[in-house]
C-alpha cells in the first residue's frame, strides 16, 4: 500500500503524521489484514516521493497528491485499488481490511509452472538406534537465496527402508508382515498451498523370524501436513523412532505334558460343574419335600 506524495504539496504535509502512524501500525503488526479465507495477509505500507522518483510516478500515472493505492502481488500492470476515504488512521485501516477480504489470495496454487521441475534423490544414511529426523530442504547457493514462498516439497517416495534388505526378503516373510517392510513405497505426499510441508512419523521395530532365520525392520507410518511461517523454507521431514527391543516371531512345539494338563483341566472342570449341578438338585429336592410335609 503506497502513499504517492510531493514535498511541495501542502495537503501531503498535513497528511504525513496520519500516514506515519498508519504505516507504523501495519508494518509493526498492530493492524492486521486477512484474506477471504481468514489467512493473514503479508502487507507492507510505504510512501514514495514523486519529486525524487518522478519517472516512477509518471509510469503509475499519478495525477494528484496525495494518491493512496493498494497493489496486489501478482496483479497485472495498471491493476490497483485507489483510496478515496477520509484522511484518518482508522478509515485507512478499515479500507485496507475490506480490500484484502475480497480476495482468496492463496487460490490457484495447486500447480504452477515453476513446480514442473524437481529433483530425485537416492542414497543411504547411517543412523544411531535412537529417535531422529531426516529432512530434505532446498538451500541457497553461493549467488542466490531461496524464496520460501515458492518452495514446494511435495514428493513421491519410491523406496524408504531401514537395515539391509536381501533380494527376496519381502516375498519370504509371512503375509501379515509384508505390508510393514516398506509402507511408504510408491506413495505420493503433496500440498496444494504455499507455506505447507508434509511430515512423516515412523515407528521402527527390529523383528526376527526364528523358523526362517530372516530379519526385518517393521515400520508403522503416519503423516501430516504442517503450516509454516512465511519466512521459513519448507522441509520434507521424516521422523523415526527405533524401538530398543527386538520382536521374535517363532512357532513353539507343545510338550506331551501340556496335553495331559489340558485333559485334566477339562475333566476337572466338567466334574466340578456336575458336582455343583447335583448339589443344587439335591438341595431343591430337600426343600420341596419339606414343603410337602408341612402341607400334610
Structure description:
The chain contains 6 helices and 10 strands; from the N terminus they run βαβαββαββααββββα. The protein has helices at residues 10-27, 54-59, 89-100, 169-172, 175-178, 256-295; strands spanning 2-5, 46-49, 67-70, 81-82, 132-136, 155-157, 187-189, 196-209, 215-227, 236-249. Strands 2-1-3-4 form a 4-stranded mixed beta sheet, covered by helices on one side. Strands 5-10-8-9 form a 4-stranded mixed beta sheet, with no helix packed on it. Strands 6-7 form a two-stranded antiparallel ribbon. The model has no long low-confidence stretch (mean pLDDT 84). α1 crosses α3. β1 (2-5), α1 (10-27) and β2 (46-49) form a beta-alpha-beta unit. It is α+β, with helices and mostly antiparallel strands. The chain is 28% helix and 22% strand.
Shape: elongated
Give the N-terminus to C-terminus distance in angstroms.
111 Å
- String of helices and strands: EHEHEEHEEHHEEEEH
* Coarse structural class: alpha+beta
User: Poorly predicted ranges (pLDDT <50, ≥5 residues)?
Assistant: none
Range of strand content: 15-25%
For the largest beta-sheet, the strand count, sense and barrel status come to: 4 strands, mixed
- Helix content range: 25-40%
How many DSSP helices? 6
Strand adjacency order, main sheet: 2-1-3-4
Mean pLDDT across all amino acids: 84
Q: From the alpha-carbon coordinates, what is the Rg to the nearest angstrom?
A: 37 Å
Oligomer: single chain
Q: Say how many strands there are.
A: 10
Amino acid at each position: 500500500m503506497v502513499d504517492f506524495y510531493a514535498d511541495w504539496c501542502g495537503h501531503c504535509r498535513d497528511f504525513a503524521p496520519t500516514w506515519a502512524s498508519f504505516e507504523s501500525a501495519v508494518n509493526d503488526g498492530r493492524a492486521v489484514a486477512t484474506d477471504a479465507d481468514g489467512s493473514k495477509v503479508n502487507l507492507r505500507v510505504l510512501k514514495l516521493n514523486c519529486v525524487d522518483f518522478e519517472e516512477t510516478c509518471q509510469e503509475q500515472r499519478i495525477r494528484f497528491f496525495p494518491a493512496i493505492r493498494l497493489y496486489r502481488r501478482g496483479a497485472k500492470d495498471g491493476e490497483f485499488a485507489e483510496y478515496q476515504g477520509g484522511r484518518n488512521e482508522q478509515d485507512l485501516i478499515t479500507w485496507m481490511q475490506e480490500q484484502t477480504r475480497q480476495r482468496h489470495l492463496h487460490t490457484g496454487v495447486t500447480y504452477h509452472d515453476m513446480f514442473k521441475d524437481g529433483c530425485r534423490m537416492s542414497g543411504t544414511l547411517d543412523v544411531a538406534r535412537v529417535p531422529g529426523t531426516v529432512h530434505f530442504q532446498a538451500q541457497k547457493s553461493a549467488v542466490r537465496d531461496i524464496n520460501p514462498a515458492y518452495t514446494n516439497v511435495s514428493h513421491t517416495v519410491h523406496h524408504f527402508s531401514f537395515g539391509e534388505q536381501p533380494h527376496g526378503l519381502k516375498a519370504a516373510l509371512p503375509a501379515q508382515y509384508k505390508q510393514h517392510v516398506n509402507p511408504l513405497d510408491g506413495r505420493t505426499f503433496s500440498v496444494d498451498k504455499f507455506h505447507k510441508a508434509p511430515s512423516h512419523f515412523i515407528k521402527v521395530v527390529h523383528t526376527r523370524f526364528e523358523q526362517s532365520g530372516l530379519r526385518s525392520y517393521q515400520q508403522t507410518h503416519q503423516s501430516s501436513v504442517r503450516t509454516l511461517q512465511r519466512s521459513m523454507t519448507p522441509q520434507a521431514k521424516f521422523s523415526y523412532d527405533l524401538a530398543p527391543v527386538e520382536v521374535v516371531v517363532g512357532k513353539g512345539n507343545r510338550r506331551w505334558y501340556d496335553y495331559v494338563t489340558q485333559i485334566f483341566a477339562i475333566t476337572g472342570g466338567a466334574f466340578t460343574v456336575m458336582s455343583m449341578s447335583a448339589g443344587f438338585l439335591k438341595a431343591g429336592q430337600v426343600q420341596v419335600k419339606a414343603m410337602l410335609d408341612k402341607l400334610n
